[in-house]
Amino acid sequence: MATLADVAKKANVSKMTVSRVINHPDQVSDELKQLVYHAMEELEYVPNYAARALVQNRTQVVKFLILEEIDTVEPYYMNLLTGISRELDKHSYSLQLVTQKSKNIGPYDGLIVTGMRDQEIDKVLAGLEKPVIAYGENRRNIDAIDVDNRLGAELATKHLYDIGFRQIIFFGINLLEEEFMRSRLTGYSSVMKAHDLIEESYFMKNSSRIAEKKAFEILQNAKKPTAIVCASDRMAIGVVRAATALHMNFGENIAVTGFDGVFLDRISSPKITTVRSPVIEMGETCAQLLLKKINEGGAQQGSILFPPELIIRGSTVVGRE
Predict the structure, then answer these.
(1) Considering the entire predicted model, what is its pTM?
(2) Residue 138 gets which letter from DSSP?
(3) pLDDT confidence of 205, banded at 50, 70, 90?
(4) Is there a single domain that holds both residue 112 and residue 195?
């Protein structure tokens, strides 16, 4: 069985360099990493992660706490978990899903929290001694990963303006006290103000059925072409159903945009123009940031906002799928 010394000799580097590549790859150049990885592959060397964890007083466990109703966020979190687990696997970490009550049961090295509401932060963080990364914007200076929610809403609203709509309504989730929703509303509002348009906003549960009912009430009395910027694809599906029931023509007298771009936007007919969040990539970065924080003894890492992408489809433009 190959040893670390064998790998060092094969790669013509020191044992300390091989150890650094294995334990702290972020501190090593890509060229050096590839040299060591190639030697490891040729020698079929497998690092003893169990021994390393014992020496470093690590568990090789990361916990993932979801503080939202799963039925309102699926399949979004499956993509997020894919990204997180993919990155953790590279470093031989296991991922555990936990609840608010069970988060402190059993040893772990770090915690990723999502769905954490501002008024719950102190309760969630109470008693935690391990590094934490939040998935989602917050106003409490907690290290976090999220999409640029304001820019996403700006892209959607500007698109609707550019294709000729002047009555543009915002459908938000009834969590206006949360930073991500405030950012999306601000993005919508900034475009409306820039073009001297009248703002009109409604807030409700993240439900296609509720959004459909509200949209039907508004659209059946609409006197001119109307566009609706939705804070989620789930809500946009409901608006599309309402417009279809009223025999409205997408891209002509009705236009609908969503937000997220994770599967639901593609099952609607027509498919939904949406603001796509790179969720898998965001999950990978979330895990990277937490592992870096663990390796640096809990040092502050800051927050990262990913740029969103506007995907244009048939719910806003005639002739698109």
Answers:
(1) 0.81
(2) -
(3) very high
(4) no
